[in-house]
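Supplementary Methods. Inverse-folding protocol.

Structures were first reduced to a discrete structure-token string of length 158. This string, shown here, constituted the complete conditioning input.
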């Protein structure tokens, strides 16, 4: 089995597991509102992981978010369990979240060679580009002025 197929299977399994939390979400909505809010995030993440299974390489950041948020949640639960703030039995959930995180990171699709390193680099390149200029005899500053900007609503500029 190749890596992408294994990732698709994992995404479907984790997506179904997280989406199945809709049942306890309905039970805890009145009794434990904070738990219900957290479960609603997991149910939403589960739905998006199911959608990501169609094309994992187009959803790299979602997969990374699912992995790293699983690590964060597991770390917080582990600290709470060792400080006796939650029952020690919750360490099974810690192990499950760590396994989910590790598997998602290991199987995550490789970055495509054409992808940009960062959005900040893209923004810097955009800012460095200058808008086109053209000659205009009516201007007093050497006959050069900036081309008028057309708005997003296609309202002609004067």
């Amino acid at each position: 089995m190749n890596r992408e197929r294994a990732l698709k299977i994992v995404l479907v399994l984790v997506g179904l597991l997280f989406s199945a939390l809709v049942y306890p979400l309905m039970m805890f909505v009145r009794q434990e509102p904070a738990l219900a809010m957290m479960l609603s995030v997991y149910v939403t993440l589960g739905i998006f992981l199911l959608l990501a299974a169609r094309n994992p390489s187009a959803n790299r950041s979602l997969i990374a978010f699912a992995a790293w948020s699983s690590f964060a949640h597991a770390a917080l639960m582990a600290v709470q369990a060792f400080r006796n703030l939650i029952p020690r039995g919750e360490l099974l959930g810690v192990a499950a979240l760590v396994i989910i995180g590790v598997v998602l990171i290991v199987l995550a699709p490789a970055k495509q060679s054409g992808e940009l390193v960062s959005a900040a680099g893209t923004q810097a390149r955009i800012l460095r580009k200058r808008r086109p200029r053209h000659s205009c005899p009516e201007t007093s500053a050497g006959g050069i002025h900036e081309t008028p900007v057309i708005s997003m609503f296609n309202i002609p500029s004067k």
